[in-house]
Amino acid sequence: MMSCLMLSFLKWNQVLHSFYIGITPKKHRKHMRTHYNCFVATDAVDWILNYLQFSPHFTGQQISRFQAINLLRKYLETDVIERVDARKAGQQFQDNKELYRFTNTLEQFLFNAVNQLILSTYLSESNLRLIPLLNLYFLIGRITYWIGYQIAPKYRTFGFTVTFWPSVAVFTLNAYFLLTTNNNYLFDGGKPFGRI
Q1: Calpha distance 194→8 (Å, rounded)
Q2: Are residues 50 and 17 in the same domain?
Q3: Is residue 179 in a domain?
């Protein structure tokens, strides 16, 4: 049972990853305004439909346009994508010319995860407890970001700040350690020098 759930998770995670790197966000003009790094809803539906129809994970299955739209609705509901026009927030995803973009939650998560992984190589065993605290801080920031965005897009600033600046601080700390410590242990299998 658990292996089926894991396989299903990996399969749908692969679809999301492929969509994220496969669809090309572009510059679009709408209502006399230029919007950057976004995509048209119909293009997203076309891309998902094409991917699912030719994916080896879905061989022999009839994939409909409606199923592709439902998958994109799930992406909208779970904040993987968002409408460019924030006034229409809360409306269901439609197969039309509406503009969408990826939320920055995924980029923030990846940036944060990689930085924490690198930081953990420099921390002593007693200081590794900072990693769960950083994760908790990140989670609180993303939740406040989401709550603020549901109220009004301008209220997401606090949540963004709570997650962005600690990630930048950890990145800066990692760069400092990389430049000031002896990193030869990474290649010769020895013990790290100067762990904090």
Answers
A1: 43
A2: yes
A3: yes
Nearest-angstrom CA–CA distance, 163 and 151: 19
Is residue 195 a part of any domain in this protein?
no
Domain span at residue 130 reads 105-188
- The CA distance from 131 to 112, in Å, is 11
Which token pair is 85? Answer: 């026009």
Total domains present in the chain: 2
Looking at the whole model, is its pTM more than 0.85? no
Q: Residues with Cβ < 8 Å from 57, sequence gap 6 or more?
A: 11, 14, 15
CA angle 15, 20, 23 (to 5 degrees): 105
Strands (DSSP E) along 6-164, which ranges? 26-30, 33-40, 81-83, 99-102
Q: Which tokens go with 47?
A: 């891309």
Calculate helix-pair angle for 41-54, 2-22, nearest 10 degrees: 130
**pLDDT tens profile 149-159:** 777 666 777 88
Distance CA 29, CA 88 (A): 17
**Domain end position, chosen among 87, 102, 117:** 102
